[in-house]
Structure formats: structure tokens, C-alpha cells
Amino acid sequence: MVQIPKTPAPPSPAPSRSVPTSADVARLAGVSRATVSYVLNNTSAVRISEPTRRRVHEAAKELGYVPHAAARSLRAGHSRMVLIPAPTFPVGPLYSRFLTDLQNALAALDYTVVQHGTGGPHGDEAARAWAELRPVAVLVPGSGLGPRGVAVLKRSGARVVVTLGPETIEGAHALLMDHDVVGHSAGAHLYDRGRRRIGVVVPQEPGLETFSAPRLDGVRQSVRGTDATVTELPLAYDEQAAARLAARWRSLGLDAVFTYNDEYAMLLMRALLDEGIRVPEETAVVGADDLMLGRLMRPRLSTVRLELPCGRELAELVDRAVRKPATEPETHKMLGATVLHRESS
Amino acid sequence: MVQIPKTPAPPSPAPSRSVPTSADVARLAGVSRATVSYVLNNTSAVRISEPTRRRVHEAAKELGYVPHAAARSLRAGHSRMVLIPAPTFPVGPLYSRFLTDLQNALAALDYTVVQHGTGGPHGDEAARAWAELRPVAVLVPGSGLGPRGVAVLKRSGARVVVTLGPETIEGAHALLMDHDVVGHSAGAHLYDRGRRRIGVVVPQEPGLETFSAPRLDGVRQSVRGTDATVTELPLAYDEQAAARLAARWRSLGLDAVFTYNDEYAMLLMRALLDEGIRVPEETAVVGADDLMLGRLMRPRLSTVRLELPCGRELAELVDRAVRKPATEPETHKMLGATVLHRESS
DNA sequence: TTGAAAGCGGTACCAG
DNA sequence: CTGGTACCGCTTTCAA
Fold this sequence. Notes:
- The structure is a homodimer.
- By secondary structure, the first copy, chain A, is an alpha/beta fold.
- Chain A has helices at residues 22-29, 33-40, 50-63, 69-76, 93-108, 124-132, 147-155, 180-192, 209-223, 239-247, 249-252, 262-274, 311-323; strands at 81-85, 112-116, 137-141, 160-164, 173-176, 197-203, 229-235, 256-258, 284-288, 302-307, 331-333, 336-340.
- The model of chain A is unreliable at 1-16 (pLDDT under 50).
- The interface between A and B is large, with 57 and 57 residues.
- Chains A, B: Residues 20-76 form the HTH lacI-type domain.
- Chains A, B: Residues 1-21 are annotated as: Disordered.
């Protein structure tokens, strides 16, 4: 039976140039849109005859039909999109791997993971832009999202908001990734090795305060109530700055330094060595993040290895929360830290 | 005037828990949905009285109304979403900065940038998942997208497909980011400095072939027709592997090595030095990507600095192509490379 | 200046 | 087993 289009002569001159819809597939297969939907979604509540299924599949393939996610989620009233704001600063291999793991784990649970490039600084206004996409879950690394932002997301249908930062936010699940454990480990390690005048490098680069402040704080905590002192050392990520700091090193009277991460450690350690300061005899140096390259320094760099939650764990937490949103926001302390003692401390 | 809901008693028991729509705003403001749309979009073709505008804005704010992007783009027939597949491997600070720049530039042109976490390896099936989102443009770094994938995207409404890779793909704009210029620069530099037996490190890590193969090829090209030889040196990113390679270094009889990038350079250089091989006297070492840390090595690491296109340029190209899709796919050679000669070569 | 109504592409009821 | 149809939330004519 030949299908006759309902509209006798559609004004569109070149139908080939437009995007195929399920109606086009239905027309070509000689069935209704409903049937197309049933077939392509393998709807179990409905049995479609094998010949029909084949015709639909063939028509879909021939037209290069791809379903329209927006239309689908509009109708469904919800999506399976997990939204993660894209980081605005260069991110280390650690976080990179974590993100890839997480994406794969979520993809395995049939979520669509999307990193949204935010215009302004991650803030409550950014939350509005995210909310427009009606994600089912939002994972926000770092701080910067306030209770208002969380509220906006929740009001627009997000069933889960998870913050991966140093603090708990009202209304959101929190994966407390408080970097203070890093500083704490480093501080304790240095104290145990007899160091008492501890410097802590704080990067000048913007966007890193989120991590550097808690790390500094962790060192402070670790020596609280002892006779050890903690000195904050602002440092920009370039050789001259490091050289300047090294030049006045002896006047600072420090016997140890925790450098925020391995990159700053390598930068500073090189400058110290060039200045004739012996490591670790005169000054112990501890970095963080366990970069491969730290092992190449002489002396080999001691470092604090951060243990991020594995992607699958987090993915399952998200999935659980999506399915049973009644649960109160949970707070988990997710971060572990281990000192890898090598030669520089 | 009190508004009376059209439906006498809607079955929804808790309307407070559902997402506010423009209809809710209209109801609260005592106007029609059309008016709400006009006000919130500042539609210039229609003049709305000031009191009405205020009422609408207040209602929207009170309800915490956020427009539904899917519904909007469904109605409009197009979106302003630019889709970029998320990289699946740890990415350097260089590319990281490039991406951030690009995102900002596109955001300034009022596009929504979204990185899509692909399940499988970037391929033509992944293109289907991207196409479901109906992005107006797709930027694909690396290779892995074939002509079929491009066709799928185009058929589902993408007005621009740009590949940022080593090769041109049928139907897509190509920003030829052929990393061969990196290898070429390094090879030429080494040849100029009298080196004739050149090794090239090729990382064993998966996902890096996209870059390593062209870089190797570039070195080959640079010495074609001369008496110089090029030797491929597979290397995993760990200390033992580097030590093993260094142990048999003298038997290889090489007087120079280009190491893919600075990280591998540092790894290998350390191993060579530990083996007692003098750099650069016996063997010259050149890395790539100009990492800060390379400067800290002794001898300071020579490197090839890659010049990525600036984000704004690319954003404008995309914007132009979106607005005038009639244009033939263009092919641009976007990559420059400069040798930074320091002490290791 | 404002409102009614027709869709955009899919899904899921209910009837046949 | 399949077709008709009423939506999902929003924009945009066309009338009033």
C-alpha cells in the first residue's frame, strides 16, 4: 500500500536537506510513529511483529535517523544527563584520571556525562546556566557553589547535587574532599623527622586557593599544640620567583618546607640547591601528588600521595541518590593521603 | 483580578515539588504564557508595558523559574550548543589552556560549550551519541572520526564539524594540527647541530599514537635525503623502562634523541645521566611542549614549543561557518613550532 | 498591548 | 499487534 503524505504539496523545496524525524522513518516504513518508537526503543510492554521491526530498522538506517534527545527528555520529564562544570584551570593527571574513570563508570550506568564550560566564575549564576539543561545530577568540584545555587538546581529538577570540595553546602550531598589531610600528612611527617620550623608554599596562581588553603591549614593543624612553627610562603610558578625565595632562604630560618605539590617542590628544590642549600640536611622538602618526575630529582622527592575516591564508587553513589532522592544529603570524607618518603626529607 | 485555574482540581497533590514552567510564571503574574516569553526574552518586535514586565520578572524570580533549554531548542529547531568530545587521556597544560580559551571565546559569542564524555573510543558510533544532542557545531580533537561520523553529524543538523587532527576528513572543516611540524623542527635542529644518528622516543601509552606518530614522521621528513638515520625507540612512562633503554644506549650508537615531549625527555635524560652518558656531548636530547620543569633539569632541556591557534580565532571560524554553512570545508594549517635551544642539545 | 493556538520530535496511553 | 492522539515546555504567528 502506497503511503500518501497528509499534506499534498509541502512548501519545503528540498526535504533531503532537513533532519529526518521519526515521522519520516514511519512514512518510509509504512507504519505509524508510535510503532517506530516501540521498535527503536525495544519497548517490552508491546510486541511488534518481526517483519515490521525489520522494515522500521531498515528505514531508520536508510535515512540515517538519530533520535532527538531534547524531544525525548521533554516528553519523559527527565533526562539522564550528569552535568559537571569544566575545570577552568590546568588540571593534573590525577584529577584527569579520576574524571575519566567517573565518566566511564557513569556511562556504564547509562548516564550521559557532560562537562559544561561555564562563562563566569563558578557561582550561583552559573548554576542557572546548568539548570537550563535540566540535568538529573550535578557534580561540582571545588568550592564556589553556594546554597542558593544548589537550590536553583534542585528547583529545576536536579535530583542530586554533589559537591566535591572542602566544605559542606546546605542541601547538597558532599563528598568532602578536604585537602587538609594532605597538609596534615606532610606536617606530621616533617614533625616526626624532627623538623620544627616548617615553611608552606602557597601558589600565587589564581584558582588554586581552593586546594592550597586547606593544604596549608592541614599543616597548621598537624603541629597545633607543639613547639613547631608554620610559615606561609607565597610563590609564583616561575624560576625567578623561586630564585628570589631561595636567596632569602637562610634568613627565614626554616628547616623544612611543604610545597603544595610536586611541581612547586621541584621548582623550589632546584632553586635551593642552586643556592647551595643542602636537601634534606639543611631543609627537608616534601611535595604532593606523586608525579613521576619527582622521582627523577636528586635527591628523590618525598611526596604525599592523594587517594581520590574511585570513579565507580562515586558513580554508584550518584545512581543510588538519583533513584531514591528522599535520602538526606550525605557527607563523606573521601580523601586519604599517604606520605611517600624518599630522599628529600 | 484573581486568576482562576482552568483545571478545577488538578490531581497533582504537591505542586510545590514540581519544576516551575513559564505557565506557572504566567499564572502568578496574571498574564499569558506568550507575554512571559516576550518579557523574559526581551523580544524587540513586541512592546510590553512596564508594569507588566515588572510583574513577570517578579513572578519569575519568586518561583525560581529557569527556562527549559530542551523545549526552547526543540521549538526553535536549532540550538547554540558546541559539542567537544572530552579527552580520554591526561592532557597537558597546553591543551588545557587552549580549551579554556576556546570555551571563553565561544561563550562570548553566546554559544554553550559542552564536553561530552564518550563511552567507547572516539569513533563513528560515538558520533551518534553526539548527534542526539543536536549540537550546532562539533569540534573533534585528534583523529578517530571518519567520514561516516561526519555524515551522521551533518545529517542531524550540525552546521559545522571541525576536526583538529593530523588529517583532513571528507565533509568536515579541518584545522590541520599536524604534529609533524614538531618532529620536523626537532629533527632539523639536531641535524643543524651536526647530529646524524637520531633516536625518536615513541610512548607506549595508548591514546598517544595520534600525536606520537606524526611527531616521529616529522623527524623522518626533516632528514629525508640526507645521510642521517632515524631510529624508533618505544618507551613506557616509568623509571625501569627508561633505565633499561639507557643500559643499552651505547649499543644503539645514537648521538641524539627526540623524546616526544618534555616528560619523556626528563625521564630518559635522567636515566642516561645515571648511566654515565654525557648530555649533550655524547647524546643530545630534545623534548617538546616547553614545560616549566624542563628548565630545572641540568643540563637545561632543549624543547620544541608548539604554537596552538588562539581560542578566539577558532571560535570566530566556527561562528562564521555556523552562520554561512554554504562555505566549502576549509583546511587550515594551524600549528607552528619553535625550537627553544637550551643546554641539552 | 495582550491572548489563543499551532506546532517542534517523541512517548505512552487507549482503542481498534 | 498497530494506529490515533494527547501531551512535555516553549516560541511565534495571528487576532482581538
